[in-house]
Write a structure and sequence with these properties.
Elements lengths: L1 H16 L6 E3 L5 E5 L8 E7 L7 H14 L9 E5 L2 H5 L21 H12 L4 E10 L7 E5 L2 H10 L5 E4 L11 H7 L3 E9 L4 H19 L13 E9 L5 E3 L8 E2 L4 E5 L2 E4 L4 E4 L13 E8 L7
Parallel strand pairs: 3-4, 3-5, 5-8, 6-7, 7-9
Antiparallel strand pairs: 1-2, 2-4, 6-8, 9-15, 10-12, 11-14, 12-13, 14-15
The structure holds zinc ion.
Amino acid sequence: MIRNAEMIDRFGVLVQKLQEKKYHIEYPFEYAVIISPVKNNKAPIDFTLMAITHGNEVVGLDIACELLQKILNDELKIEFKFALLLGNVEASLQNKRFILSDMNRSMGLKAVKNSEEKRGVLISEHILKRTRYLFDIHQTIEPTKKSFFIFPYTRGSLRFASYLDPKRPVVTHWGKGFSKDGMCTDEFVNKNGGAGISIELGQKGFDDNQTQDGLNLVLRAVEAMNQGTSFSSNAIDQPIYTWSEVVSYPDGDVALNSEIHNFDIYHQGQEFGDANGKKLTAEKGGVVMFPKYVQSGMPKPKELIRFMRLVEHKELP
Ligand SMILES: [Zn+2]
């Protein structure tokens, strides 16, 4: 928790220091900065890096600070319009995912009820609406066997993700939106003509390996932006998954088998938990995603667990 506050402060100090550099710097709102080689305030933002969209998924803070330090040290040149921002600072200071409103369901809201939603509107209106490529850094609640990209499917997002890492699995979905409330960051960018992707780097918390992994991907994106790379000719090789089964959170006494991790495999008919003394079994089964363990006193989530299947390329719209 103290480390969250320290890193948020460090981000604030580093972005202020950018003024010493030969860039044109804009501060559209607190904990957000837009860096460009020339003054051109109206131009689209080529690349946006976002951290702590969920306040306790803190590894992105480390990555953003490492990147800023490289720019300040002149180890990295920025030859495009680049936005860096922190999502839910308020929640991160309490080491919470969110306080009242999930920032990743607060993009493009028409009316706001609290300060998190207010910040969501600032982010979506001032930055994401004019972002060409978005990289939003997340971490999973439970352990994960693999890091993975996750975003609503568009051709552009898939090609961008695949360029950043042609081996890393992609979890995607198409058709209906992810949530009925406000939009996710990547979804909002996609709806506004850009290509938005999110990544789950590993289980939540500070972790040097995850920092290095995420930083390498961001550096690859920066290099591509500096060279004006288009991602259109990129071949897609990695496994792509989508939901085969979404299990709603049952009423009453629910117990998920202990230590179910993301990317575990559960077969059709296999027991994965218990609700009110009755076995819960996988209807279709597949690869586990987002298992939910609720501690007493915590509100009941909408979903208990998801299972995924591999997607064939020809299925993609
Ligand atoms: Zn998240």
